């Protein structure tokens, strides 16, 4: 009973993945063939080329790791950051705010109250 449940569940997931890939490949092919040849005089793609383009873009822009929902750009969940914030003293919070502002303004050339880089 238990094994049959897991086999059925794995098969359902496999079917959903295959259907999703098929639909995404078709959508990518359709969008490419609708826009790129007209706008840029580019080539027309076939289905397998479009699917390969999706895989390649995932490798280039998404990496090999699966996407984790609820996590920020540094790999920490926002819940973790909020918990750390609540544990800070008011002085630590002010120090953090100042360091964040300095880093932001220093990278983007803005000036804040205390002077700083332009």
Short précis:
The protein is mostly helical and 118 residues long.
Attribute tags:
118 residues; 71% helix; flat; mainly alpha; single chain; 4 helices; 0% strand; 2 domains
Can you walk me through this structure?
With 118 residues, this protein is mainly α. It folds into 2 domains: 1-67; 72-118, no CATH class. Helices cover 71% and strands 0% of the residues. The protein contains 4 helices and no strands. It has helices at residues 2-40, 47-62, 78-87, 90-108. The longest helix has 39 residues, at 2-40. The chain is flat and about 60 Å long. The model has no long low-confidence stretch (mean pLDDT 81).
Q: How many angstroms does the end-to-end distance come to?
A: 69 Å
How many domain regions?
2
- Which stretches of 5+ consecutive residues score pLDDT under 50? none
Number of helix segments?
4
Task: Please state roughly what percent of the residues sit in beta strands, choosing from under 5%, 5-15%, 15-25%, 25-35%, 35-45% or over 45%.
Answer: under 5%
Rg measurement, Å:
24 Å
Global outline:
flat
Count the strands? Answer: 0
What is the succession of H and E elements?
HHHH
What percentage of residues falls in helices of 4 or more residues?
Answer: over 70%
**Overall pLDDT:** 81
The secondary-structure class comes to mainly alpha
> Major beta sheet, specifics?
none
What's the helix and strand layout?
Blueprint: H1 2-40, H2 47-62, H3 78-87, H4 90-108
